């Protein structure tokens, strides 16, 4: 469900998907509900019937405990490290923000699962991880696309004018939660650049001799798309 919320690839790790979606693990949510239920039963046993305001305050207290426990759990992620480490320091701001939503292409950049040579090589859609948009890069990653690839210098200039020169993922996430303007600037960059990378990938699928990159047809294509395509 978290993957569907962030419109990401199904290969995104559980921890990264939950953090991106702002959805705490369900075992922690269950603990909150159980604790709230026990508290209400104890209050009734003492002859008190909590009003709605008291229940809301108690729920908020338990929610703060949940976030603290979740943050501790995120100190030891098993996968999706770059995404988790970027969001964990600003987890409260990420959860409480009132602006910005994630698109398919923004999630690609934040998760590293998308139209990047390293990822496409991992799922056997490219023979190697090199960048097809600049000649000197041996590995095309989300960070390379965001901060280094010379093909996107103009889009990057527009982005840095809004968010500053530090395009590391933690710095970018801080800027995104800090203001709607910065969030929109990141969205604009991702939509422009990733859409062009996707177009180039489709063209390579048509022209390449590499079997893993060729467009699938019939049942095999539907099966592959069901696994790799975002919801």
Automatic annotation (TrEMBL):
Region of interest called Disordered, as start-end residue ranges on this chain: 198-231
Composition bias type Basic residues, residue spans: 212-222
Name the UniProt record assigns to this protein: Reverse transcriptase
Origin superkingdom: Eukaryota
Taxonomic source organism: Parnassius mnemosyne
């Amino acid at each position: 469900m978290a993957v569907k919320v962030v419109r990401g690839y199904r290969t995104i790790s559980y921890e990264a998907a939950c953090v991106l979606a702002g959805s705490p693990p369900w075992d922690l949510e269950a603990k909150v509900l159980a604790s709230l239920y026990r508290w209400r039963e104890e209050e009734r046993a003492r002859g008190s019937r909590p009003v709605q305001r008291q229940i809301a305050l108690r729920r908020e207290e338990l929610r703060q405990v949940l976030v603290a426990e979740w943050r501790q759990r995120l100190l030891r992620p098993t996968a999706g490290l770059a995404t988790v480490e970027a969001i964990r320091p600003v987890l409260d701001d990420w959860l409480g923000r009132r602006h910005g939503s994630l698109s398919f292409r923004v999630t690609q950049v934040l998760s590293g699962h998308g139209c990047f040579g390293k990822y496409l090589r991992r799922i056997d859609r490219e023979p190697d991880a090199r960048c097809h948009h600049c000649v000197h890069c041996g590995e095309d990653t989300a960070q390379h696309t965001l901060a280094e690839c010379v093909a996107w210098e103009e889009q990057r200039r527009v982005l840095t004018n809004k968010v500053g020169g530090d395009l590391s993922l933690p710095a970018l996430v801080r800027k995104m939660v800090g203001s709607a303007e910065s969030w929109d600037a990141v969205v604009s960059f991702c939509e422009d650049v990733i859409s062009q990378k996707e177009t180039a990938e489709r063209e390579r699928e048509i022209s390449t001799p590499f079997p893993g990159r060729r467009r699938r047809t019939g049942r095999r294509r539907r099966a592959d798309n069901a696994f790799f395509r975002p919801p």
